[in-house]
Sequence to fold (247 residues):
Amino acid sequence: MVAGLEPAALAFAAGAVLVGGVVRGYTGFGSSMVWVTSLTLVMPPAAVVPVILAMEVLASLHLLPQAWRAVDWRSVGPLVAAACLSTPLGVWLLAVTPARPMQVAISVVVVVTAIVLWRGYALRRAPGMAATIGAGVVSGVLTGSTSAGGPPVVIFYFATPAGVDVARASLIAFFMLTDGVGVAIAAASGLFTWQSALRVALFLPPMLVGTALGSRRFVRADPEAFRRAVLLLLVLLGAAGLVRALV
Fold:
């Protein structure tokens, strides 16, 4: 047994980490959903979340140098600040509102919005500061209440006239910063242990291979094909959230 995992479980987890890394390297997001649905099959959920947060940060650090020049820091900064400040509000909503109806509503909105964007809808100009902060607040509230704060920010970027390279790079920067805050909170709460660190070290090689493969695929991708792939992933994530809430 290594890091509390049997060899078969460790091999399964490493394969899942590789697949999630490919998704993250290609689109700039989505790996956490792959990892949480797979790793919770072989690890307790309380042990999975800190590991995933740490891997998300490392994946972003791996991808960010290549994407740095394309990051729209003018929007990333307010988004991150608004998301971090509003996350406690989401935690409060979780305490006073049933989680299942909230997850159903969020999943439906994500699926419908992704389909609308797929059909060609897009903003003609970049959103102003109020809309940017609003997207960050929604992301933070959803992070605190459902742990699914990513889709609002993804929709925010892919509904704007910014190119796919700017959207992907900005998402990488956004998740690096917000996940970094999450790791700090997990460490301060005693959830990130030495065993968590060992698991991260074991999963790091397949994750790096996956992100490198996905990033290479992005470089060769047609922008419109990439946009469709992102929206399809959003639909799948929304549908997965809907099924999880209903079942």
Observations:
- Residues 199 and 212 are 20 Å apart (CA to CA).
- The chain has a mean pLDDT of 83.
- DSSP finds ten helices and no strands in the chain.
- The radius of gyration is 17 Å.
